[in-house]
Amino acid sequence: MTHQSHAYHMVKPSPWPLTGALSALLMTSGLAMWFHFHSMTLLMLGLLTNTLTMYQWWRDVTRESTYQGHHTPPVQKGLRYGMILFITSEIFFFAGFFWAFYHSSLAPTPQLGGHWPPTGITPLNPLEVPLLNTSVLLASGVSITWAHHSLMENNRNQTIQALLITILLGLYFTLLQASEYFESPFTISDGIYGSTFFVATGFHGLHVIIGSTFLTICFIRQLMFHFTSKHHFGFEAAAWYWHFVDVVWLFLYVSIYWWGS
Amino acid sequence: MAEDMETKIKNYKTAPFDSRFPNQNQTRNCWQNYLVKTRFHHVDQADLELLTSDFHRCQKAMTAKGGDISVCEWYQRVYQSLCPTSWVTDWDEQRAEGTFPGKI
């Protein structure tokens, strides 16, 4: 009987990378079909296969780690590097949209009236719902830290409670922002102001939803006793991602909502 | 005819250097001068002379026959020199329609 003599994880063959790539193809071509030919079939198929891929891939990671013990310390270190690199790439993603915003707002063209906000745009009051949104996300940053400490101190009930609060705050932010989008006096097609506003805040909102989903998975895993006080990288990755989402919002708030009004 | 052309060409000037706009992109220069000209457009000529510090230069212009350039005429020539004609016509049309985005 041969066993590996190293601490690394030689992953068994898996179909999910292939289904993931195929789902990406279906989603991209589906978008084109939706934009140009008013058909959502390919897109829906792509979204379905993408969701199934993610569910099954990450379910397998949980099986390999929690149930089969493959996540030794060096493996976990690799996962940490991976998450950090991923979040770094997301930082660059948002940097592009902030660049676009500042490019247009620092030197407003004659077409806009030579000032920012442009003529005809009534920006949202930064001291109303946007400020509430800021406090909601900051509070959620506190609650997730509480959850982490509770987890490390083996306090099961408080971990569950704090994680739930974090998720609820995330949901509250999403609902508030959705209502802001609905009530807003300007739309995405209202010149460069509308474009920069909704693309930047829109992608942020998407990331809040992704982060909330990640936290919810952690919540379920916590209920199922997956985490120990010493080993809970999934939770840490979710927490890092959540803090990143919070920081992006702070930049959005200061730049677009506050300075940009 | 030739004499008129010669004197005309001698009097051709372009907008002088404005240190507020030192770079190659002079869009803001054109825009600023157009705005200033349209802001002063409705002001009565006499009031304008009183408002400007170039009162004496304006006074001289009133007596001399087209020798000196009056203040509001000055801005007009600057933007006409700097700005693409199509921009000026577009902006004039917008002002007539009430869709001009600038703060006048």
UniProtKB/TrEMBL annotation, chain A:
Pfam families: COX3. One of its GO terms (molecular function) is cytochrome-c oxidase activity. It is found in: Mitochondrion inner membrane. Its main location: mitochondrion. The keyword Transcription does not apply. Keywords: Membrane, Mitochondrion, Mitochondrion inner membrane, Translocase, Transmembrane, Transmembrane helix. It is a multi-pass membrane protein. GO terms for cellular component: mitochondrial inner membrane; respiratory chain complex IV. Residues 4-261 form the Heme-copper oxidase subunit III family profile domain. One of its GO terms (biological process) is aerobic electron transport chain. It catalyses: 4 Fe(II)-[cytochrome c] + O2 + 8 H(+)(in) = 4 Fe(III)-[cytochrome c] + 2 H2O + 4 H(+)(out). Belongs to the cytochrome c oxidase subunit 3 family. PANTHER family: CYTOCHROME C OXIDASE SUBUNIT 3, CYTOCHROME C OXIDASE SUBUNIT III. Component of the cytochrome c oxidase, the last enzyme in the mitochondrial electron transport chain which drives oxidative phosphorylation. The respiratory chain contains 3 multisubunit complexes succinate dehydrogenase (complex II, CII), ubiquinol-cytochrome c oxidoreductase (cytochrome b-c1 complex, complex III, CIII) and cytochrome c oxidase (complex IV, CIV), that cooperate to transfer electrons derived from NADH and succinate to molecular oxygen, creating an electrochemical gradient over the inner membrane that drives transmembrane transport and the ATP synthase. This is Cytochrome c oxidase subunit 3. It comes from Homo sapiens. The lineage of its organism: Eukaryota, Metazoa, Chordata, Craniata, Vertebrata.
